[in-house]
Design a protein that fits this description.
This protein is an alpha+beta fold. Helix content is 34%, strand content 33%. It has a five-stranded antiparallel sheet, with helices on one face.
């Protein structure tokens, strides 16, 4: 009886320690969401690029956003920012939070970029 009680106690201790062992942890680090657009050019399609913590890159072309005329430029900029916000909110539901935002206009064609840096804890 004493042997059975000892083995049961050891088994229970092993099971308890295994149950408290942490499972797979979600990847930590930083993630970037980059929205870029070039108002006033009909040939350019705005896009959102997501760069994962491991360096994998995903590009989402926003073909539904119309650019090309001065009138459409403001609407296209707003539509691009709306798409960026939807992407950031989607990532927030998965545990990511925004830690930094930077916006810039680069080059002769006035490519506008908004870079969101997100962190998962």
């Amino acid at each position: 009886m004493k042997k059975h009680l000892t083995f049961a106690a050891i088994g229970l201790a092993a099971a308890a320690s295994w149950a408290s062992y942490p499972g797979s942890v979600a990847p930590t680090g930083y993630l970037m969401v980059i929205g870029s657009g070039r108002p006033g050019t009909e040939s350019y399609v705005p896009e959102i690029t997501t760069i994962q913590p491991d360096g994998q890159e995903q590009v989402q072309r926003l073909t539904s956003i119309k650019v090309g005329t001065e009138r459409n430029s403001t609407a296209a900029g707003v539509a691009l920012h709306r798409a960026e916000l939807l992407k950031v909110n989607e990532l927030a539901t998965h545990g990511w939070r925004v830690v930094s935002v930077a916006q810039s206009t680069v080059g002769v064609g006035a490519t506008t970029e908004t870079v969101y840096l997100l962190e998962r804890r």
